[in-house]
Specification:
This is DNA-directed RNA polymerase. The chain is α+β, with helices and mostly antiparallel strands. The protein has helices spanning 2-14, 31-40, 74-78, 82-85, 107-115, 119-128, 175-180, 189-200; strands at 49-54, 59-65, 132-138, 182-188.
């Protein structure tokens, strides 16, 4: 259990998933050595105490102790997942439950995660496990819904002719967009739906892609 606490804390600080593959480490490259290196980057000792940093103040607030304890974690490990918190069916358009969530994250929970320096948990709970999606963003104009396509010479003009030189599933961008380069971004599905609704009403939404 203590090793699991260390692994979870290291993954939350660096924003990476921990590898639990058995027999991956050996006597020369131990798991403890890897954890110590990851903790040293954050100025945290793996032995007894760790340091909590206040985000609002930007400095260390107090030191906390890590000890071995017994805790029934079966319900605790799945109680905060979105599969448990959703009520009702999930809308295919917005990927959100039609009856809301049983335990939504309000301002207090969000501020608590940010104050502990674990913003990756907030991203994982609100987007990665909810309505994670990818989209193309134009770096030149910042638009999300229109990138411009090249018209192929082999494209038929009749209503029944749908032949094209491009293979199925291939997206052709215009030459001006190719120079700037479209960027693939990670966005929430609800945000993409909101942008589409605002664009339909004539409100332009431009994103800054780097």
């Amino acid at each position: 259990m203590l090793s699991r606490v260390w692994l979870g804390k290291a993954g939350a600080m660096h924003g990476i998933a921990q590898d639990a593959t058995p027999f991956r480490f050996n006597e020369q490259d131990t798991r403890r050595h890897t954890l110590e290196n990851s903790f040293e980057q954050r100025a945290i000792t793996i032995t007894v105490t760790s340091r909590c940093i206040a985000v609002s103040l930007g400095r260390s607030s107090r030191r906390t102790s890590i000890s071995v304890g017994l805790l029934p974690t079966t319900r605790h490990m799945v109680g905060d997942k979105w599969q448990v918190r959703t009520t009702g069916k999930v809308d295919k358009l917005t990927r959100q439950p039609v009856k809301g969530r049983r335990d939504p994250i309000w301002g207090d929970g969000r501020d608590a995660l940010l104050a502990h320096g674990t913003s990756f948990l907030l991203q994982d709970r609100l987007m990665n496990c909810s309505d994670y999606s990818t989209a193309w963003i134009c770096k030149r104009c910042g638009l999300l819904s229109s990138l411009g396509y090249d018209t192929s010479d082999d494209l038929g003009l009749g209503p029944t002719s749908q032949t094209s030189s491009s293979p199925p599933g291939r997206t052709e961008f215009s030459s001006s967009v190719k120079m700037r380069g479209p960027r693939g971004g990670i966005l929430s599905t609800v945000f993409r739906y909101l942008v589409a609704e605002l664009m339909a009403m004539g409100i332009k939404i431009a994103l800054q892609a780097e």
